[in-house]
Every structure is written in C-alpha cells, then in structure tokens.
Amino acid sequence: MTVGRLEGKVVVITGGASGIGRACAMRFAQEGAEIVIADLVASRCEEAVEEIRRTTNGRAMYVETNVCEENDIEALADKAMAEFGHIDCLVASAGVSNAGYVSGQVIENDEALSNHLLNTNVEDWSRVLQINLTGVMLSDRAIARRMIAAGNGGTIVNIASSAARIALPGAADYCVSKAGVEMLTRVFSMEMLEHKIRVNAIGPGFIETPMTQGLRDNAEGSEMIMATTPMGRLGTVEEMANCALYLACDESSYTTGQILFPNGGIFVG
Ligand SMILES: NC(=O)c1ccc[n+]([C@@H]2O[C@H](COP(=O)([O-])OP(=O)(O)OC[C@H]3O[C@@H](n4cnc5c(N)ncnc54)[C@H](O)[C@@H]3O)[C@@H](O)[C@H]2O)c1
Question: What is the pTM of this model?
C-alpha cells in the first residue's frame, strides 16, 4: 500500500481510545491524517494520542466525549474545527456489546449470552440503543453539518457489526442497534449525496478487542466463534482499520450507502 491516502485530511474517531477505533486512528495517521480522538476516559485517550505522535509524528488531539450527549458531540466538533479548521472524515466506532459492558474490563462469560429478550429491562435496552445507534446518529449529524458548511464534501464510516444481519439470541439490543446503524448509513448516504459526503459502514465479525475478551476467555464462547467463522480465526483490528481506510479515502470514490462485512466469511460458509 502506498502511504499518504489521507494527507492533509482531518479525521474524527469516536471510540478512538480502544480496539477498532484506536487501530483506525493509528492506520489513518500513517496515511497522513490528523486525528481527533473522542472517547470517554481522558487517560486512555491520552495514551492513544501519545502513541500516534510517537510512531507517526502526526498531529493528534483528543476530546473527552460521551457520544450519547448532544452537547459533548457538538463540543467535540467545535474543538476539532477550532484546532484544525476543517473535518474531512468521521469514523463512528464508539459502542458497547451490552448494557453492562465497559471497555477494558473483562466480563466473565459475557452476560449478554443469557440476556434473552424476555428478561431484558427497558433501562438496559435503552442504554445499548442510546450508545450504539443514537450515538452514531449524533456523531454523523454534527460532523456532517461542519462538512457541509465547509463545502468540501467528506466521508463517514460507521462501525456497525455483522450482528446487523445475524439474529443472536441474548443480544437483541445489540443486533437491533447495529441493524439500525446499517439503515441509518443507507438513509444518510442518500441525504448527503448533494453535499458530496459519502456515508458507508463496516460490519465486522468477531474481532480481537476488549469487547470479545470475555467470550474468548470462555471455552464455549471460543468454540462458538470458531464454529461460526469459516476462516477459523478472529479478525484483527488492523484488518478492520484497512477496511475503514478504504471507505474513508478516495479509492472508494464511487461507493456510498454500503456496508462492507470483514467477517472471515460468516455469511458465506
Ligand atoms: N470486537 C468485535 O468483535 C466487534 C464486532 C463487530 C462490531 N464491533 C463494533 O466495533 C466498535 C468498536 O468496538 P471494539 O471491539 O473496538 O471495542 P472496545 O471496547 O475496544 O472499544 C470501544 C470504545 O468505545 C468507547 N465508548 C463506549 N461507549 C462510549 C460512549 N458513550 N461515548 C464515547 N465512547 C464510548 C469505549 O470507551 C472504547 O474506547 C463498536 O461499535 C462495536 O460494536 C466490534
């Protein structure tokens, strides 16, 4: 791969302090992008920013952000504009696997597995929808508004999931939130055509991040991953970042409203 696909571009990455978002931040910085990380915990954001500066010499900053909070998202967009003067790309990666999930903490035998809809309470349901779906909507909307005002177009990559298309018992909230992100991506891509903003998504399979740690540490969970994934392995965050990079840069210039599924063949075999 040649380097420099995102030279001079400013990229905002929600959930950029960990996992897929963090890998996107690193990969995009290697391609010349200036990075704005938006995530919950300042110390983890600082670490990510520090790594980018150290390894790529690129410009990076962070804004402590809760994607559920409209004010946070607006402040994020304003701070990115104040620092860099333009925003060219958004990767919306912030997300949770279930209401009790906290990134970076290993949850023994992912409780979502036994969390059937019959037992779900509205508070947990709303929390997952609020972060995974409304959070993406708020992020897309705030960044797109700035892109439109600047008049230079842009790209948006939403991180959905293969769960947008697979009915996972015990994870109705997650599946519904990701199916919502897929449709949000499609609708928004049509609304953004006239502004030359392309809106796409990726729908990863099982990826090696803190989110799947509980599942991977559990024999039954690991077996389920291997049995479901024809390639017989988890995906890496770098593989996800490469997919997101393709959708973020000009090499995908004729692609909008699409969801790309880097999932080791889950829908095929
Ligand atoms: N890991 C997988 O197998 C997998 C598969 C499909 C889709 N995904 C999706 O990829 C995205 C990234 O997940 P990951 O696996 O990298 O997990 P992760 O836990 O490593 O990263 C998620 C990040 O999102 C942040 N976040 C959570 N809630 C937030 C909020 N309210 N505001 C701001 N930031 C918040 C967390 O602090 C964390 O840094 C998620 O949307 C997830 O649903 C992951």
Answer: 0.97
